């Protein structure tokens, strides 16, 4: 199951500030490069080894306070259905308002855990004022300040109790779960049809229940795999404003439940900001990734076009340079096999374990030749390293002064691991620990 935390509440209580607070560290890497749009409303967060997706539902609602019966109600209902945990943000500067009570009424009917987050509680008075929100009938409020971060730790300690231990369990262990992601119209359904050999039923606008992602096992192109598909997440009737919200939820769920994401791009459109968002999200979620540039048939090209495009993409994705890029055409069934083969290879890479002796044999000489630069006159000595038994490749380097090792050196080590052991398509995590 995907762990999804949805932030709901009326306008101006501090939802987006809280969203930024929860996701800020995780966003740093990709957002600084390559002009990724900053105004997105979902992101990745982590608290004591539990990882989860955060959605700022406020970002999907247009309109003002007098429209509760419309867009806001819809937003809350979707959030209730799709989220694992709900954070209901209220404002200690104003106290409970009529609109807060409207939200509370809907939230009280849900069976999902709801936390009343009494925001802007920087002062003692406002911390006291938080208890007024007990009247909303949703339990004890958590006084926090999204601006300073105070109180958010206690809140997250509670929130993560609702997540299963390891995130996603693998019922058919050893068989790669693959999600096909991409912007609308890149060719996802066409690709799925080719893979599964049948016309998939079109998702209809039936009001009512939604389902989680469906995992279906397939054999195609000589490969055995499970497609995680979110066709079950139905659009309700009358929804217009929230279509983007739906498609985002779909891809988040499919991504969370998969091992490897095939991220499709449209060759006739090039790499767009939304594509970068999806790629960034998958990398932050530590998923294996294959980039499939579809509609290659529709591009006017010569023998250099692919290379030029590949270089351009790598530049924009920098420093992420380890994702395989395949130029394909679903219509002409060109390189479909390669895409699937690469996805399997990336899956193997994701689960590859390097023994401690092999790792040290390969990296010790490199580290001796290029030790971490001394900081504040202090020599930094890396003693040894090992790979942890985690679901995605994670390496720990034991050293005397872990706090002095800077990002460029970390990247250097990552590159050396990749050069020696080839983790094509898979994000690597590196930790430094005192020894
Ligand atoms: P949203 O409409 O619910 O997403 O609210 P925003 O995050 O845009 O915040 C609304 C206003 O409240 C902004 O002016 C924020 O600076 C302010 N704000 C948000 N969080 C806090 C907080 O923890 N303390 C204080 N004092 N102000 C906050
Ligand atoms: P989805 O929204 O990502 O599921 O995209 P669809 O599978 O519905 O495809 C969107 C459009 O792109 C349709 O008109 C397809 O026929 C077209 N399309 C899909 N794959 C290819 C391809 O390989 N080449 C070309 N030229 N068009 C394609």
UniProtKB/TrEMBL annotation:
Record has GTP-binding as a keyword: yes
Entry keyword set: GTP-binding, Nucleotide-binding, Repeat, Ribosome biogenesis
Annotated SUPFAM superfamilies: P-loop containing nucleoside triphosphate hydrolases
Binding site for GTP 2: 182-189, 229-233, 294-297
Residues the record lists as binding GTP 1: 9-16, 56-60, 119-122
Domain EngA-type G span(s) in chain numbering: 3-167, 176-351
UniProt cross-references to Pfam families, sorted A to Z: KH_dom-like, MMR_HSR1
UniProt GO MF annotations: GTP binding; ribosome binding
BP GO terms, sorted: ribosome biogenesis
CDD domains from the UniProt entry: EngA1, EngA2
NCBIfam families according to UniProt: GTPase_EngA, small_GTP
Family: Belongs to the TRAFAC class TrmE-Era-EngA-EngB-Septin-like GTPase superfamily. EngA (Der) GTPase family.
Function: GTPase that plays an essential role in the late steps of ribosome biogenesis.
Subunit and partners: Associates with the 50S ribosomal subunit.
Name of the protein this chain belongs to: GTPase Der
Native source species: Fibrisoma montanum
């Amino acid at each position: 199951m995907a762990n999804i935390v949805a932030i709901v509440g009326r306008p101006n209580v501090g939802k987006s500030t809280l969203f930024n607070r929860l996701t800020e560290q995780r966003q740093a890497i990709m957002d600084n490069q390559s002009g990724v749009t900053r105004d997105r409303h979902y992101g990745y967060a982590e608290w004591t080894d539990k990882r989860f997706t955060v959605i700022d539902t406020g970002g999907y609602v247009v309109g003002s306070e007098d429209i509760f019966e419309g867009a806001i109600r819809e937003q809350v209902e979707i959030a209730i259905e799709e989220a694992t945990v709900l954070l209901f943000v209220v404002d200690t500067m104003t106290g409970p308002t009529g609109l807060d009570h409207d939200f509370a009424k809907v939230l009280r009917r849900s069976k999902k855990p709801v936390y009343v987050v009494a925001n802007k509680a920087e002062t003692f008075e406002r911390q006291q004022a938080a208890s007024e929100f007990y009247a909303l009938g949703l339990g004890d409020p958590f006084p926090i300040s999204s601006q300073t971060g105070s109180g958010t730790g206690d809140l997250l300690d509670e929130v993560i109790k609702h997540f299963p231990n390891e995130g996603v369990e693998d019922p058919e262990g050893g068989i790669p779960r693959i999600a096909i992601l991409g912007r609308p119209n890149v060719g996802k359904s066409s690709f799925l049809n080719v893979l599964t050999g049948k016309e998939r039923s079109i998702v209809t606008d039936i009001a009512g229940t939604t389902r989680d992602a469906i995992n279906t096992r397939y054999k195609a192109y000589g490969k055995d795999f499970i497609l995680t598909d979110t066709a079950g997440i139905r659009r309700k009737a009358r929804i217009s404003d929230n279509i983007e919200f739906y498609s985002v939820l779909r891809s988040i769920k499919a991504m969370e439940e998969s091992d490897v994401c095939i991220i499709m791009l449209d060759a006739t459109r090039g790499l767009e900001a939304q594509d970068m968002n999806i790629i960034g999200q998958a990398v932050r979620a530590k998923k294996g990734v294959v980039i499939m540039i579809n509609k290659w048939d529709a591009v006017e090209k010569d023998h250099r076009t692919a290379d030029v495009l590949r270089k351009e993409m790598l530049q924009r994705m920098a420093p992420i340079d380890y994702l395989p890029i395949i130029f394909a055409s679903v219509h002409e069934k060109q390189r479909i096999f390669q895409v699937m083969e690469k996805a399997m290879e990336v899956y193997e890479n994701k689960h590859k374990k390097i023994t401690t002796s092999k790792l040290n044999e390969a990296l010790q000489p490199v580290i001796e030749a290029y030790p971490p630069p001394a900081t504040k006159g202090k020599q930094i000595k890396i003693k040894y390293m090992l790979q942890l038994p985690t679901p995605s490749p994670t390496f720990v380097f034991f050293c005397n002064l872990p706090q002095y090792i800077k990002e460029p050196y970390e990247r250097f080590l990552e590159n050396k691991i990749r050069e020696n052991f080839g983790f094509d398509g898979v994000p690597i995590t590196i930790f430094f620990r005192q020894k």
